[in-house]
Every structure is written in structure tokens, then in C-alpha cells.
């Protein structure tokens, strides 16, 4: 069990940002309306995430840290059939195997919760504790017991940029959740949680960038597309400013990015990228998913059709302004 957790940790926990991704997904799954993230030293010192979601019942807290105790499904394809982001039930045990974790959680508003502390997979403390409804999870000294892994970590600045990326994508995917992110005492992001995507874009990329975006909205028998896309396009934008969401999940997909860029191509110098948040919805049967814990790569069964749809939708959105 111990060893299995450490092996799984090697898969799930590549770097601080992978820990943060798993913990934010858990908070989202718990129905949180507010998610506060604090990190120190690029997440290697501390990753703390407090949410006001459903919380964990005291009797379930230890189980949540046991491997596969909560596994919901087995194959990647099912991933888009289920409503929750988490599905493997191995994030918490994997994280607890390679860090010092403290989790305080309560499932009711009566203040009666429980605290669990673990170090390198071993339980250090497990007792009743006062807690507001929700979950407060601290992960300290990541990789303290796996020096080989620790050695591979980059500079604090690099790890921080990966952490920011995780928070940004989740905030863009869920404008209805208020996210806050602070690193070494400095607040880097605060979103209002009022459902307005443009305000999330403003919080991440600045007000000017957010103002210079057009709403995009298109329907197709198989797909719907919505979001915001830049016009005019700033020169400093790069590929990283493109966020693709499929059924609410952040994915990487050339099948969406390429037609997006193609639509801009007649307007833009070839090496310029628009700031863009595109959210696609479709039946899960039209998706083929190759799941890696750290990133989600997705293929579409009717890719040619989808490409044409995306390109046309973006073209028409830009056309209303540009031609
Ligand atoms: P998974 O998300 O795949 O189910 P995890 O290891 O990430 O597996 O989490 C295990 C379980 O712990 C979850 O299924 C959930 O029941 C519970 N849990 C974890 N984090 C939270 C949270 N922030 N709020 C409520 N429940 C949580
Ligand atoms: Mg999870």
C-alpha cells in the first residue's frame, strides 16, 4: 500500500502544479463557490487550498486518503460522461505519500469537523476539530521524502508560473466560482465569481485585453461554441493565451486551436496569437480522450466537421467587426 502510493505519486504528482490541479478539481467537485489558494516557494514549501464546498464527513476523511477507495470510473472515455472532474480516487493518497498534509474538513455548518495530518503516507493526527463547512487542505514540503524527484524541480519562478496556469484555466472554466490566488504573501488573482467570463479575463490578462474581446456564440447539430476572442489582437499574446474548454474541462486540442488561428490568419501576422477562451459542448460519445493526470488530450470523432464549424464561427465573429 505504501509503495503503491509512492509509485502512483510518481504518475499523479509530477510537480507542485499537478498537486494544485487535483486539489482545485476536488474543491470544484465539492460544489465550492469560493476557492482560496495560497502557495509558498513555488508550491514546494506550501500549497494550501480552502473551499466552502460540501466538505468531507468526519468518518470519511481517512478513507478519502486511501488508494482507489473513491474511484468512480476506469476508462478515459467515461471521463466526459460524468459530472465531476475527479475520477481516479488516487490523488489524495498519492499527494499524502510524498508530502506533509493537513486536512481540516466539515460537512455541516454546525462547526463539528475533523482534522487529519499525514506525513509520507503515515497518519500523524486524526481527531475531531472545529471547522466551518468546507475543506482546508495544506500540502507542505512536497517531495521531502523523494529527493530524486525534488532534484528535478525548476526555479521557484518556473513552478509558480505552472501554478498560475492551473489557477487561470480553472478560473476561466468556472466564472461562477470566486478564485483567489496568493504566492509568498502577494495576491496574484482574484475573480468575482459572478459568472461573467469577461471579468475573469480582466482579472487574469488585464482590463484592456478583456475589453478587446468579442463574444462568440455558435450552434451546430452536434456542438455549441461560446466564449470570448480577441479583436484587435495584442502583439504580446502567445499560444498560452488560448484556452480551450470541452464540456467544461480544459484540454489541449490542435483540432480547435488550428481552425481558430486559421480564421484569424487573413487578419494577423502569422506569428501572432489571439487571446481566446473557447468553450465547446458536445455529447461525450463524440470524444476520444487520452488521459494523462497532468494534461488532457482529446480527439473528436467528427474532426473535419468540428474544424469547419470552429473556423466558420470564429470567422463570422471577427467578420462582424473586421470586414
Ligand atoms: P477523486 O477526486 O478522484 O474522487 P481524490 O483522491 O482526489 O479522488 O479525492 C478523494 C475523495 O475525497 C473525493 O472523491 C471526495 O469525496 C473527497 N474530497 C477530496 N477533496 C475534497 C474537498 N475539497 N471537498 C469535499 N470532498 C473532498
Ligand atoms: Mg480528485
TrEMBL record:
Origin, by domain of life?
Bacteria
In this protein, which residues make up the domain named DNA mismatch repair protein S5?
201-319
Q: Summarize the protein's role.
A: This protein is involved in the repair of mismatches in DNA. It is required for dam-dependent methyl-directed DNA mismatch repair. May act as a 'molecular matchmaker', a protein that promotes the formation of a stable complex between two or more DNA-binding proteins in an ATP-dependent manner without itself being part of a final effector complex.
Q: Which family does it belong to?
A: Belongs to the DNA mismatch repair MutL/HexB family.
Q: What is this protein called?
A: DNA mismatch repair protein MutL
Gene this chain is encoded by: mutL
| Included stretch of the parent chain | 9 to 331 of 788
Amino acid at each position: 500500500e505504501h509503495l503503491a502510493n509512492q509509485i502512483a505519486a510518481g504518475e499523479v504528482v509530477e510537480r507542485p502544479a499537478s498537486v494544485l490541479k487535483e486539489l482545485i478539481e476536488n474543491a470544484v467537485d465539492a460544489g465550492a463557490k469560493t476557492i482560496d489558494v495560497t502557495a509558498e516557494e513555488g508550491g514546494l514549501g506550501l500549497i494550501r487550498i480552502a473551499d466552502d464546498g460540501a466538505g468531507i464527513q468526519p468518518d470519511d476523511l481517512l478513507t478519502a486518503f486511501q488508494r482507489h477507495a473513491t474511484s468512480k470510473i476506469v476508462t478515459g472515455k467515461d471521463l466526459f460522461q460524468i459530472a465531476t472532474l475527479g475520477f481516479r480516487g488516487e490523488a489524495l493518497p498519492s499527494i499524502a505519500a510524498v508530502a506533509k498534509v493537513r486536512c481540516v474538513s466539515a460537512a455541516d455548518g454546525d462547526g463539528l469537523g475533523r482534522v487529519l495530518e499525514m506525513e509520507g503516507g503515515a497518519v500523524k493526527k486524526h481527531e475531531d476539530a472545529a471547522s466551518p463547512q468546507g475543506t482546508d487542505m495544506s500540502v507542505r514540503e512536497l517531495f521531502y521524502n523523494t529527493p530524486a524527484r525534488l532534484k528535478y524541480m525548476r526555479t521557484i519562478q518556473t513552478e509558480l508560473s505552472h501554478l498560475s496556469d492551473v489557477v487561470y484555466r480553472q478560473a476561466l472554466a468556472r466564472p461562477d466560482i470566486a478564485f483567489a490566488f496568493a504566492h509568498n504573501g502577494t495576491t496574484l488573482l482574484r475573480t468575482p465569481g459572478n459568472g461573467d467570463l469577461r471579468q475573469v479575463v480582466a482579472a487574469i490578462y488585464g482590463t484592456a485585453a478583456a475589453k478587446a474581446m468579442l463574444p462568440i456564440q455558435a450552434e451546430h447539430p452536434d456542438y455549441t461554441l461560446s466564449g470570448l476572442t480577441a479583436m484587435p489582437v495584442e502583439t504580446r499574446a502567445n499560444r498560452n493565451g488560448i484556452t480551450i474548454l470541452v464540456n467544461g474541462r480544459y484540454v489541449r486540442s490542435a483540432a480547435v486551436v488550428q481552425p481558430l488561428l486559421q480564421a484569424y490568419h487573413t487578419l494577423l501576422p502569422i506569428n501572432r496569437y489571439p487571446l481566446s477562451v473557447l468553450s465547446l459542448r458536445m455529447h461525450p460519445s463524440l470524444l476520444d480522450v487520452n488521459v494523462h493526470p497532468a494534461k488532457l488530450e482529446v480527439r473528436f470523432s467528427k474532426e473535419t466537421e468540428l474544424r469547419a464549424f470552429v473556423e466558420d464561427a470564429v470567422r463570422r465573429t471577427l467578420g462582424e467587426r473586421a470586414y
